[in-house]
Fold each of these.
Amino acid sequence: MIEPDVEHELRDVFRSRAAVIPAPIEPYQELRRRERRRQHRAVLGSALAVVLVIAGAIGAGLALRPDGVRSTAPALTVVGDTRGSLAGDRALLLEAGRVALATKLTGRDAVDPQSLRVPYAEQVDGYTVVLVVGRGLHEDYAAVFLGRAPGERALTVAGGTSFYSGQTTAAGRADGRGFLDPVQVLSVVTIGDRGFGVAIFPAGSRATVSRTTTLQANCTVAAGQAVPLPLTDGAAMFPVAPGGNPQVRVTDGRGRPLLARPAGAVGGGPADLTEEQAAAQVVASMRGDAPADQVAGVAGFARVDSEQVPVAERPIRYVGIWAGRLPGRPGIAALMGAQYASGAIALNGLISAENGQGYTGWSVNECLPAGQPNTLLLGQRLFGDPTQPVIMIGPPGAASARVSFSTGAPVPVRLTGGGGLLAHPGTLVRVSFFDRDGQQLGSALPSPGPFVELPH
Amino acid sequence: MDSAAEDDFREFVVGRSPALLVTAYLLTGDHGLAEDLLQVTLMKAHRHWARVRSSGNPEAYVRRALANQRISWWRRRRVAESDAPLPDIPAGDDSGRVELRDELWRALRQLPPRTRAVLVLRYWEDVSEAETAEILGCSVGSVKSQGSRGLRRLRAVLAETESDGATAPASGGRLDDRA
């Protein structure tokens, strides 16, 4: 029989704790964003290779045992599948799995120890390189570990990437299969002062790499020279020049595409702008009614976001296009661009996070051809989400817009700096822009095409 | 999912998330984990919304999924879970009772997830033993024994706190930190 006083106290504890939990802010939108982020990661394969630590942060956060202390080896289920010259070093592979668990490299989403695999172990420039993959609750994870110094076996994390395991991937595989089965990883690491791409794919895969892919003046991507990547049993490491962002294409043994995306950038080239310099360029050219301090805040992300553009070159300058206050809540939406040597400008959009901390990108999927900086006609829902405002950005001379929805009369909007934001329900059909005299400048449809046409 | 079903799902998420988040928090003891737990559970419900809706009581379905997700989650996540600091609770209570509740809360967080789920369902959700057994997929006897074990543990904490004096500093120093 339960004593009434304990029950009473327990209910009191629950009530008092429940009272301190704030109601979630816009839970549906957050759910949608979360889903989109995962889909985005699945499709793009997360080019965010986290080139973290080589020499500086050696050992930080690692729970390595001192030499001579027997460790509890994790269950590595497919040790026999390891490729690379160190594949036979079982002790090294077990140590890599143990370090992968100890580093908690996935934050709260702990990797299931039973899912750990070591698909690749190699020696590069005297450094030991080991790739570990594992399955978390939400995502599959891959991490590259390096020897702390040439010839050393003690490992430290050097890079990583993740895939949402529950979404269809670029390879078109079914729900529930991430990059673990079969293993598909493309990441970059810095070893010493040199950058390397790490490509692991099913045995029999074929790959090419292009280090000269460029964005052309008309917003198409020039393939550049694609050279075969010598995948030995589906695995390879290849040099990546500082500032480079080589395009990798992989097909399976029957020629079906498995992957086509940048490997990721390693370090920065000597001609690269600093984040501060890039931000200053963005601020200088930004139109719209967003507060200056918020524009300055968002501009700091211009350089980082340009790394998503699928070319092997780096931008030559950055531009601000338009930024405005979000209707109905604090924060701004901003459109920025990265201009390449050809003059074409790849656009990317950022919006203030709901909690006011940081920014979130929205897929703009637009590119301005060279010499046509004032021809942009953009009208779309932020995030493509019907609950989000419509953003409309036209040329600097656009004074008003008319927004058409699938039902109801078109909604007129007065523009500031050629752009505006509108909170309005309904299915967006078209945004038409007008100058001060009421002359129509053009129209934008809400469904942008692909960002750029990739070469085949 | 068609637009009507999507609208229905959105209405459910917007309307029921605050209450579901509280349940998730009581199940996990950590606000961040609770948000993750709720989001993951809702995403699963979204994928099978037609089935969830046809159950006639989507909220009960999601609460059941929350409890079970939490239990299976723990098996995977225990490596990374940490003893997150306690959030501040509203002022206005006498310090002795606050300490008592903190000690009980701490003890609750130490309970195995299944035991904790039984207590949350029984004493927060006011679900019967039979329904709790159905939700957790176990026997009524198991619910009784788990609940009894959990309350026994809490009773011991209660007795210890009262014998120490309700105003004595709590172990771990967090109450002192807040004072």
Amino acid sequence: MIKPQIAQKISSVLLWTITLLVVSSMLFIIVYTVLHGWRSLNMHFVFGSTITGGLMAPILGTLYLILLTLLFIFPLGVGTAIYLSEYAPENKFTKFTKFALKSLAGIPSIIYGLFGVAFFVVFIGHTCILAGALTMACLSLPYMVTSAEEALIGVPKTWREASYALGATKWETTWKIVIPAALPGIMTGVILCAGRVVAETAPLLATVGFSPFNPVSPLDGARTLALELFYLATEAPSTGGITRQDLITQAMGVAIILFIIIILMNMSVRWIGKKYSNEQYKIGR
Amino acid sequence: MSKKNIEITVRCLLFLCSIISLMILVGIGYFLFKNGFSAFIENGLGNFIFGKTWNISKNVYGVYPLILGSLFVTTGSIIVSAPIGISVAIFMTDIATSDIKKIIGPCIELMAGIPSIVFGLVGMIFLVPLIRENFSPPGYSLIAAIIVLIVMTMPTIITLSEDSLRSVPRQYKEASYALGATKWQTVWNVTLPAAKSGIIGAVILGMGRAIGEAMAVYMVIGNAFKIPNSLFDPSRTLTSNIVGQIEEAALNSQHMHALFACGIILLIFVFLFNGISFKMRKVV
């Protein structure tokens, strides 16, 4: 039998070690990527036309895809959240909707890819940004709903009651009181979903097409940064003068850009969270 | 429009919005089965699930090695990531001061946000050569996929275990301290047992994540269609099989049907894991 005090020391040291190991493994991934990729990051590579080996088409494609996806899920997601938090009666249907959202959040992204191929691509007739955006909309809808719902539920009940007392209808209260108060939380959801569009690859593999030209219409094919990374990393060099090592360096360069985007998004979510809770504090007390 | 009419219109519109998510779920089920079910019939259910050939030119499809591959990487990664993840969760709830939490918390958040494709890339460029040179060729192997998945499932397990550890009532711990127990004795004898079902739920959700991960696994596992003999053999999972062939398969071909059938089997596993996890964490 070990003395409890010694067990305490041992466990403490062990937990410290394990945590530091986990954190350093993550730092390692970032440092490794940066060390191997920074050489490829120059103006020509990042902002050059894709036909001459730049990233212009993937960058535009990613932005296009984010905008189109948000166009679908913003009204749908916020609408669902408003329904669930303000209007939904406590019945089987509501329960089932909530269950459906939780199930959707757990479905692997590659399944969404299959769904996108079988439904959106077949329906539209070919792979394009629109098909990709619709697929991504299905994938990210549950995240949009959950964050918007949380934000709406967080609005104090007394505010709603004050509005009713002034004679406002339910919708007037929701529109003029609840939604403005929940807006920061809803914005968090928007950023979260944009982050998913940036990060996901599997649902886009066979839905978004793969065109080296800058996308113009939603029916054009496109690539995203993550997809570009995938192809750079897995495909053999096609033209002379470019070695596989060059492609890997470029892939790492794209990974750095993805890191920067993800870190910026995480920071803005944190910033919104901080600002929001401070404001709540001021008005609430 | 009168106020009452607006009220009714809005209610109807919002209701319609909330139906969409149901429709997506039903739609995914419908299209998966519509395209995948015929693979069970074309090959015979038993032959499809226990078959050991995947021959596109002869249109013979069996997924036994894929199911095994998926289960191997899932169990292999979770065996390691569960104890590590739970340890970090204990560290975050019971040992870390708020300053340390402020550093490690965002790190774990960032880890959850790293695109899976980047894990795959680093695995492919760093891990695979490491395994090839120090252990056994070709490097693209089961163990590479397991290691990548260990890192990828970590954030899920850490955050959810942390949640359930935090939800253990304070009084439990205080009662234990009052009896003269050390911090570790309290964690081991009081907090962990009280949070047990939530932690198991977190681990099983991690398994759901692991079995569904496609891109990163595809990039490091080697994608050889065979039952691996050792951890250093290349292998293939249900997900990596879909990733590798979804672009080349023609719509409505038997090949595509077989890929959708892989999706169905994958979805059954995922729903099983997530269902158990929801029950354990009392989510639904």
